[in-house]
Structures are given as structure tokens and as C-alpha cells.
Amino acid sequence: MTNRIGVSGRWRWTVLALAMFCLESQASNHATGLMEVYGLALEYDPTYHAAMKERDAGLGERAIGRAALLPKLSLQYQSGRNESEVTQPGFFGATTTDRSYRSYSSSLTLEQPIIDYEAISRYYRGVAQAHHADARFRSRSQELAVRVTQAYTEALYANDQIELAQAQKRAFAEQMKLNGRRLQVGEGTRTDMLETQARYDLAQAQEIEAQDNADAAMRDLIAMVGQPLTTQDLAPLAETFEVLPLELNSFEAWRDIALLNNPELASLRYALDAADEQIEQARAGHLPKVSLYATAGRQKSSSESTYDQRYVTNSVGIQVSVPIFAGGGVSAAVGQAIDTSGRLRYENDAKLNEVINELRKQFNLYNSSFAKMRAFQLVVNSARELTVAMKKSVAGGERVNSDILDAEQRYYDALRNLAQARYAYLTSWLKVRFLAGKLSDVDVSTLAQCFDVTRQRNGERRHVQHPKFD
Fold it and tell me: How much is the pTM?
């Protein structure tokens, strides 16, 4: 487990060092890679740091529970000035005496629980809560890598859609010019102009939608890294990248791993253990307690009957406390703890189904995206050739303007589908490992190699390049 996210201290410092490199790269011509963004998120993300504090607070439950089993040493000291009037009956009548004196008392007490079922249950509950906090932090740590990758890829995908929409607009603008020239010489129609204009307006609407998506994704990313970034700062997906294999080919194998290693499921199991110990702790209210005590006391004039007298008292003994009646509070606390445990059992079952279903979804998406990438690459190639051929057919009078528009639309749709499949392939690979509880810093580094950090930034959008998969 030394290389799991949130566990490896040495790797975490490596990631933070890469984050410092990110700050320098912003002043250079190199784009900001996924690993650099992830390093910044480790340093800044409020959700991640809140999880760290939650973990630290939860780990303290173990020490709190253990304290109830350890000896308790207490010191009491009291000192005061007393003014009293003492009336005593006598043979010749009552006599009154005024007294003015100082008094003090002190005691040092050592107590060691011998039989305390409530303290024992509290200790085991603290142990379970500490394990729960640690497992929950591991889940939040791995979740950070997924959130960063999700926002990173969504921003890049939206940027790709902007570029595709702009390329479509340029193609349709050229087509409108051609329609205009054909209309002037009597070879075209007004309908051709309107059809092309409609496709141009649709591409413009798609560009606006993609810009909104890119802005939302970048805002999510900025909230995690605490640094001003734009989509142009991010390293784009490489035109070719190596296959990211899963070690196991069957869903059942990944499901079994998830049942054992998923930190979110583990945290819920520990929470259920803590709730069961809470039941036992509440039931202890019906049981007696036995403790061993030793006391050393010093007193002087602590009362009127001991006026001007000094006492030194040392005692050792056993103290037994037997509850008899507490107004029904103990029974109510037991019932409440049982209901809480039942609620957590149902939540555990619901979360288990949710994780397994999501794992199945991401496993299927990983396999289908791999096949889709190859298929859509063939579709892109054929659609590109079809567009060229269609333009020649229109020039020869064999086809009409709408055929060109349909061919170009299919070409750009194929580019969008290919880009979506490529990003889905990467994110599903990461999420399968996350849901199985196997996600590590090394996996994030492997995924980061699929992005081209060497791309030069010049403040302009790069031209659309036809994606390929190797």
C-alpha cells in the first residue's frame, strides 16, 4: 500500500515538486500537464484538506477511547477563611464563642477501572472510528485524482468541440461563398444558400454551448488548484498514445477486488462496527462498575467538629457502582443505537450496490470505448473521403448542395464521437481502478503521459487535427 494515493509520502513530495514545475512552466512555452495540475490540487484543494482534518480528528477517537481504560489521577485542594459563632449550652446557661480561623483540605486520588464494560465498548468504538476515518480519507484522496482528471478532460473535450465548431463554421462559410457564386451564374438556388446558412447557425450554437461547458470545467479545475488557468494552458491529448491495459479481463475479478479494497465500502463497514459498539456502550448503563482507588488526604479545621485539628488520611479500596434506575434513559439510548446501526446497514447495502453498478458501467465503458476509437477512426477517414468525393460530384452535377452539407456534418460528428471515445477510454480506465480501490499515484502519472505537454502555447487555438489512435 505504499504507493496508494494519500499514503505514499515520498511520492506526494514528488507530485508537489511537479506542481512547482507547473508554476515555472506557465511562464514558458510548455503546456501544463495532468500531473502538474494534480500536484497543485494536492497542495490547495479545500475538499482534500478538509478530508485530511476529518481523518486527523477521527484518529483521535482511538486515544479518547483508550483513556477510559487507563488510571485517572486527580488532586483536590481547598483553603478558606472562616468566621463562626459557636453557642454551647452549659450549667449556668449558654455561652457564645466567636471563632476566626483558616481551614484547608487536600486529597490526591488514583483510580483504576477494573470492570467497566462501558469503557471497554468505548475503546473498541474509538478503534472502529479511527479505521473509518483513515479509510474515508483514502477514498477522498483517490477521489481527488478522479475529480482532477474529470475536470481536466472535460475542459479539453469542450475545447475540442469549440475548435470543431469553428472549423465547421469556416467550412460552411466557404460553402456559402461557393453557393453565392453558383447562384450568380445561374447554377445554384436560393435554397442552397438557406440550407448552408442554417448549418452555419447550428455550428455557431454548438460553439456557444461548448464555450459554456469549457468555462464550467475550468472553474471546477481552478477551484481545485487555486491557480488561474485557461484551456490553452492545458496539455492536449496526444494524437497517439499507448493502450492502457487492465490487469484483469473479467468484471467478476474486479468486483471481488472492489469488495475487498474499495475504501468507501471499507469506511462504511468500520462505521457499522462503531455503531455496534455504540449499542454495547449503551447497554453498559445497566451493568455495575468496579474500580480500584487509592487516596491520600490532608485536612485542618475542615469543619466545626474538627476545629483546630489536623488529619492525615490514606486509604486504598475497591469501589462498586451499581445502577438501579435511570428514568428509562439507558433503554432509550440502547434503542436509539440499534436504530442507528440498522440505518447504517441499509446505507452500506445501498452504497455497495452503487459501487458495483458504477464499476460495471465503467468496465463496460472502458471496453466499448476501445472498440469505438478504432471504429470512429475508420468513420472519420471514410467521412473525410466522402466529403471530398461529394464536392466533386456536386461540381459535376451529380449531387446537390444538401449532400455536401450532410457529408460534412457526418465528418464532424465522427470527429466529435472519436474525441468523446478517447476521453471516455482514459477516464473509465482510471475510474475502474478507483472503484476497485487500486488507484495509485503511479496510475495518475501513467495517465498523464497520454497528454502532450510539449505543445507550444501561442495564445491562439490550434487548428483541428484529425485524432488517431495507435
Answer: 0.80
